[in-house]
Specification:
Radius of gyration: 14 Å
Distance between the termini: 29 Å
Number of helices: 4
Strand order of the largest sheet: 1-2-3-5-4
Order of helices and strands: HEHHEEHEE
Shape: globular
Number of strands: 5
Length: 125
């Protein structure tokens, strides 16, 4: 099955608005940048899959409007770039699940099956 090819789902949850800001602060080292980038948060969900090549992380976020999604995507991309590691790749992209402005982060091993067809993660608020 497709789910099995993604690896074993070991954890899923949401960060919430406060934790999203804290994650951004830790990644960027800047309270003001994190606060600005987290404005307009409207929901999120992340999932961690255990694979033979290491863990894969998929994080979907929903935003109040496209400018808020763009601010978050830009800040997250710049911060995540510093975390890159050999044998892994990552991507931050904007999407519109159900017509709502969203951003999806994927960080996974190079050979992960989910790169071909990333898993959907149901986002709540």
């Amino acid at each position: 099955s497709t789910r099995a090819a993604l690896g074993t789902l070991v954890y899923q949850d949401d960060w919430g608005e406060f934790e999203t800001r804290v994650v951004l602060q830790q990644l960027t080292g800047s309270d003001s940048l994190a606060t600005a980038a987290a404005l307009g948060w409207d929901g999120d969900r992340f999932a961690i899959f255990r694979t033979g090549g290491g863990d894969a992380v998929v994080w979907h976020t929903i935003w109040d409007d496209p400018p808020a999604a763009q601010r978050f995507a830009t800040a997250l991309s710049r911060a995540w770039e510093r975390r890159s590691a050999p044998g892994r790749r990552w991507t931050v992209g904007q999407e519109d699940p159900g017509g709502r402005p969203g951003v999806r982060l994927i960080d996974a091993p190079d050979g992960w099956a989910g790169w071909r067809r990333p898993p959907a993660v149901e986002v709540g608020k």
